[in-house]
């Protein structure tokens, strides 16, 4: 069975390549559907396959950059990417990440970085999950009461209050359909950037809900725009980790081959999913991530990995189900329409 | 006013991107695991190219990694895109429905 192992010349390891392909595919599906990089899923997976942690993180970032490109292009064709909004947010994100990193360094100097970061991470994820589920409940109530917006019933509308802030320059983000002060997305991205830098993650997990609840993007556009930002930060991360010699380029190639297919499936699945379908599945992914971190905090690393990989498998299967069911329906409808036209 | 704003925003973005390590600084400093990759066991020229760059020029290795990743992203995206086109699905539009 030697052919199932591939020599990684830089890390100097033999790695089970079908595992890489599978990880790439799963994260491609999930990332394309939720609009995030998915480092929290890939890094433990690569670690299990035998990569040392530093190589796992660097390789993961490079793979995320490439995968986000595939998803961004596909979302762009659907009209789900607001490039203007994405570029505006890059400013806040980068400054925010740097500020978050400085906070971590300060905590490191007083020897409290580990537990503080983990518990803040758990707290943030808990709040996100809570917000998503409460929002869903509120949206259902509104729907029953017949209160419906342009795109259907919506739960929390905090962004409407934030859009009332009229600090110049005011900007119109056509694709997202938002007219607000340019400082709103910059400030929101700064906040999510600070948290991302503080927690040591890419930020897609935080930016996607922030785009929906605070900036006011429809869910599909939040997913596409977030992926555009993940692509930019991923390419930058690839360069910095590359210079530090922490990227195994062959692993990136294999993972990307799987991720390119997965990203197409995940992205096209958004076409057949309602905004709240994406939000609820996202909330469940956040809960899985939170549980795994709590387990890690109590040193149950093996259980944490099982939880993460189990959640990845289940969510991936759910998204593939949406995609194939939706595609089959569409093709059936097309056939029926063609038959009608012939008759 | 809008033009000046856009230009300053673009300049600021570029300046921010030049800040060293904004992505990696969040974690603890990584330990050097392997200083030199063993190029004696690599016989294929393309692999040798990467290993030699890794051993001799970290900056160029980082740059090539970025270029190669971007190239892979675009080309694999293009190939899978072509495949998806042949499925018969309408991949040019979607309707946004929240609930």
Describe this structure in words.
- The complex is a heterodimer of chains A (343) and B (99).
- Chain A is mainly alpha-helical and 343 residues long.
- In chain A, the strands form 2 sheets. In chain A, strands 1-2 form a two-stranded antiparallel sheet.
- Chain A contains 12 helices and 4 strands; from the N terminus they run E-E-H-H-H-H-H-H-E-E-H-H-H-H-H-H.
- The longest helix of chain B has 28 residues, at 58-85.
- The two termini of chain B are 40 Å apart.
- At the A-B interface, helix 3, helix 4, helix 5, helix 7 and helix 9 of A face helix 1, helix 2 and helix 3 of B.
Spans of chain A of at least 5 consecutive residues whose pLDDT stays below 50 are none
Q: In oligomeric terms, what are we looking at?
A: heterodimer
Q: Write down the overall mean pLDDT of chain B.
A: 76
- β-strand number of chain B: 0
| Number of helical segments with 4 or more residues of chain A | 12
Helix content of chain B: 55-70%
Order of helices and strands of chain B: HHH
Number of helices of chain B: 3
Q: pLDDT below 50 for ≥5 consecutive residues: which ranges of chain B? A: none
User: Structural class of the helices, strands and pairings of chain B?
Assistant: mainly alpha
% residues in beta strands of chain A: under 5%
Percent in strands of chain B: under 5%
Shape, principal axes of CA atoms of chain A? globular
| Radius of gyration from the alpha-carbon trace of chain B, in angstroms | 21 Å
* SSE string of chain A, helices as H and strands as E: EEHHHHHHEEHHHHHH
The strand line-up of the biggest sheet of chain A is: 1-2
SS-based structural class of chain A? mainly alpha
Shape of chain B: flat
Distance between the termini of chain A: 57 Å
* Main sheet: strands, sense, barrel of chain A: 2 strands, antiparallel
């Amino acid at each position: 069975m030697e052919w199932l192992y591939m020599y990684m010349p830089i890390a100097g390891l033999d790695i089970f390549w079908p595992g890489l392909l599978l990880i790439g595919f799963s994260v491609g599906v999930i990332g394309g559907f939720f609009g995030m990089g998915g480092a929290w899923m890939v890094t433990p997976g690569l670690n299990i396959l035998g990569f040392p942690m530093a190589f796992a993180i660097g390789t993961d970032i490079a793979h995320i950059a490439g995968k986000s490109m595939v998803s961004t292009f596909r979302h762009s064709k659907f009209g789900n990417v607001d490039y203007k909004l994405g570029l505006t947010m890059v400013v806040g994100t980068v400054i925010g990440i740097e500020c978050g990193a400085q906070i971590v360094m300060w905590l490191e100097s007083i020897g409290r970085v580990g537990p503080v970061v983990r518990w803040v991470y758990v707290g943030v994820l808990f709040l996100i999950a809570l917000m998503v589920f409460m929002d869903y409940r509120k949206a259902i109530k509104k729907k029953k009461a017949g209160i419906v917006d342009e795109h259907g019933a919506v739960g929390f509308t905090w962004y409407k209050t934030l859009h009332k802030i009229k600090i110049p320059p005011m900007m119109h983000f056509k694709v997202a359909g938002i007219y607000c002060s340019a400082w709103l997305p910059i400030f929101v991205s700064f906040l999510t950037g600070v948290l991302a830098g503080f927690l040591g993650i890419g930020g897609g997990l935080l930016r996607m809900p922030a785009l929906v609840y605070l900036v006011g993007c429809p869910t599909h556009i939040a997913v596409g725009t977030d992926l555009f930002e993940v692509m930019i930060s991923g390419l930058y991360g690839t360069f910095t980790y590359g210079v530090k010699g922490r990227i195994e380029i062959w692993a990136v190639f294999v993972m990307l081959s799987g991720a390119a297919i997965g990203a197409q499936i995940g992205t096209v699945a958004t076409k057949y999913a309602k905004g709240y379908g994406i939000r609820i599945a996202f909330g469940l992914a956040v809960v899985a991530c939170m549980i795994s971190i709590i387990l890690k905090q109590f040193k149950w690393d093996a259980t944490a990995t099982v939880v993460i990989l189990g959640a990845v498998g289940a969510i991936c299967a759910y998204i593939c189900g949406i995609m194939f069911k939706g595609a089959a329906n569409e093709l059936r409808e097309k056939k029926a329409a063609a038959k009608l036209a012939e008759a | 006013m809008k033009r000046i704003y856009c230009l300053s925003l673009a300049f600021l973005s570029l300046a921010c991107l030049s800040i060293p390590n904004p992505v990696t600084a969040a974690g603890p400093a990584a330990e050097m695991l392997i200083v030199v990759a063993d190029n004696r066991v690599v016989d294929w020229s393309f692999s040798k190219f990467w290993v030699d760059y890794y051993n001799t020029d970290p900056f160029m290795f980082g740059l090539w990694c970025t270029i190669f990743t971007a190239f892979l992203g675009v080309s694999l995206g293009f190939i899978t895109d072509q495949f998806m086109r042949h499925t018969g699905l309408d991949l040019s539009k979607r309707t946004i429905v929240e609930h």
